[in-house]
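Appendix B. Raw example, untouched.
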Amino acid sequence: MELTRHNLEDYLTGAKVLACGGGGSVASARQRIAEVYDADGSFTLVGLQDVPDDELLFIVGSVGGGVSEDARASVAGLPIMKEDPLVVAAHRLVRALDQEPFGVIASEIGPGNGVAPMYVASRLGIVTVDGDCCGRAKPEIAISMTNLAGLPITPMAIVSPFGDAMMLESAVDDERAEAITRHIAVSSGGIVGVARCPALGAAYRLAVLDGSVSRCIRLGETIHEAQVSGEGAVDALIHVTEGLKLFTGVISRVERTDAGGFVTGNLEIVEIADKTRPTLRIWYKNEYLAAWLDGIPIATSPDLICVVDAETGEGLTPWENELVYGRGVTVVGIPADSRWRTKEGVALFGPSRFSLEMDYIPIEKHFSNLHEAKK
């Protein structure tokens, strides 16, 4: 499937919802899309079933987040290289391998990190797999279905915006690879391009959420059609994702801290239609990861917590100036892939990962309990 500009706009809208507040910026994605089309390039998507078992795939994406003013100032005078760090990282990894790659795959769902592999694939003349390795966005590269499936994360190429290029030949484990990469991102002003986890198609079949790119395109198309028809974008979003409407209200408070390669904070939403004024609090670390209604847990990763505009259904992120006081929003919960709901999956991406004092309970059970309590 060769993607059109229209497909890609639909993808950006759908991916921004399912990214749960993270997954890279729409602006950087559009810039890369324009660059490819301006050079008469194209974006080719293939299904996971069309990847031969013995062909090589690898992940491409940006890694980083918020850093302190001192960290930004330390690199402020360095010249930015002309080449895209993602492309340089991909070339570095390919040179280190014994086999030419068949294609690349996204580490997560998200505007920036979803378009990143498509862009690199176009530049390298290979394909992008219709899938990703998480099913949503997540704050750390160790949180990945490749980790669950036991695929080695190395060799890994890491490239800064200034041209610093490093090859991590091996790592103790994915956690150590995350720590090393995050440290380099912080010392590079907040972000690096990374190519990692080379493995054969047969291995990736156990580590990919198949069809997730197409899912984002369908979701974006649904939202855009509902916006035009006026039939209710949020309801259309919930229908196509089989999601749950957790809360609707207005933003009453936003806290944000940029440090350590992450953007962290709390978002509070108050329901003004209810005289008791119930309040939903969402904690985020690059992405929305846990939610409490009046202090009672109602959602947590690995399930998806999506904050969208109550009128347009557009996904909202803490990275941009979108979480503004008084804005009407709806919070939608979507069950995670079944692999994340295993004992191993919850250990890797559940609340204990982030030292949250709550147990993982499937979001649909939280939803059922919440409605029973209201009765």
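End of appendix B.
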